Fold:
Amino acid sequence: MPKELEIGKRYTWGEVVEAYPGMWVRMSDCNLTIGSGIIDGILAGVYTDDNVEPVMIKMHREKSKDILDRTTIGFNTGLIECLNAEMGVKDEP
Structure:
């Protein structure tokens, strides 16, 4: 079983993927590749598919510069990555 990483410490993307396959991770102060992939960053949180939505909403409301990304993509899972995307939440009666 992979070791658990410490929140608040800098890790490479490879270390994070190995420790948390199939999970969502929030990373801050990231160094990025030209294609906006994460080279390394400070681990700020780890989430499952079931508990990541409130984190996404909170980051959007805070206009956070942190990156929230899934370490590995499972079967029948899609991920769209684009520049200048916006996400919104709307309450409807």
In short: The mean pLDDT is 84. The beta strands are 10-12, 24-32, 38-47, 67-70. Helices lie at 13-19, 53-62. Residues 5 and 15 are 9 Å apart (CA to CA).
